[in-house]
Amino acid sequence: MVLQSLTGTTLHGLQSDGAQYVVPATLEVDDIDPATIEVTHFYGLDEVRYEGAWHIALGLAVKWPYLWLHSLRMRNTLAQRWFNLWPLRVGDRLDVLRDVVKASEDGTHGVGALELMSNRHGNRWVDHPAWREYQRRLDAQLRLLADAGDLTTNDYFTYQPTGQGVRTLDERHDASRKHGANWWVQVALGVIALAAAVFTAAQTGFLKLPTVLDLQGKKDEQVEKPAANQNAPLPAAAAKASVPAPVLSPSTSPAAPSASSARRASAPSASGAR
């Protein structure tokens, strides 16, 4: 039942005849079950649904569904104004052909300018100030593609891609891929040539580069460290331990008296005894 008015405790509205809400009807408020009542409020292009009397009372008292709808409308308004600041770009014929092929692959039987505009921009193009010019330019591109054999049409309103159009896209894709590969090869060759020129200039002395890794300096430093350690004064205990002990030769070593000296020493003692 579509509610139209309320008189006392009687609701006046329209009931459906199976196709439209055109049958006048009335309903008493006391006959409504609060637990099973469902209300749909058509708020502009939006809908607010209530289930149960408590839900209806809470929604009408707090107004939170309508605050949420107002915030969404404000966001959409700002997004639409931002969208209207930019021109609608048709692109080249290959872009248009690519969009027609993509729409056909998604299952669309026959694509026109309006379908392409919706696929590209959603429904925002409707409020764009230049949408009519945009549609005219798209129609012109579609007709040129049909005349070239990339699209087929019977009424110049809906178009379908042909085998030639698909081959055209494949060839352009391969050409773009090869161009990208060649570009990276050229960049790599340029980097190698630049590095070779820099090293050549450094070897000839024309260009001085900062030392990144000095192996010769590290080797000289390792050689100088042992020499410095040898020239350093030793501690007292180490110096005493390092003094070599005197070596006695046979001529200076204390040995037992020889036989001749013993006889010499014994001779005076013998004469004295006599």
Question: Which properties best describe this structure?
Answer:
274 residues; alpha+beta; Arc Repressor Mutant, subunit A; three-stranded antiparallel beta sheet; two-stranded antiparallel sheet; 9 helices; disordered C terminus
Order of helices and strands: EEEEEHHHHHEEHHHH
Question: What percent of residues adopt helix (DSSP H or I)?
Answer: 55-70%
Strand content: 5-15%
- What's the alpha carbon Rg, rounded to whole Å? 54 Å
Q: How much is the average pLDDT? A: 77
Instruction: Give the biggest beta sheet.
Output: 3 strands, antiparallel
The number of helical segments is 9
Pick out the low-confidence regions: 247-274
- Whole-Å distance between the termini? 174 Å
Indicate the structural class.
alpha+beta
Number of β-strand runs:
7
Strand order of the largest sheet: 1-2-3
Task: Please state the overall shape, judged from the principal axes of the Cα atoms.
Answer: elongated
Tell me what you see in this structure.
This protein is α+β, with helices and mostly antiparallel strands. Among the domains are: 79 residues, no CATH class; 74 residues, Arc Repressor Mutant, subunit A (Orthogonal Bundle). Helices cover 55% and strands 14% of the residues. The protein contains nine helices and seven strands. The strands form three sheets. Strands 1-2-3 form a three-stranded antiparallel beta sheet, with no helix packed on it. Strands 4-5 form a two-stranded antiparallel ribbon. It is elongated and about 105 Å long. The N and C termini lie far apart (174 Å).
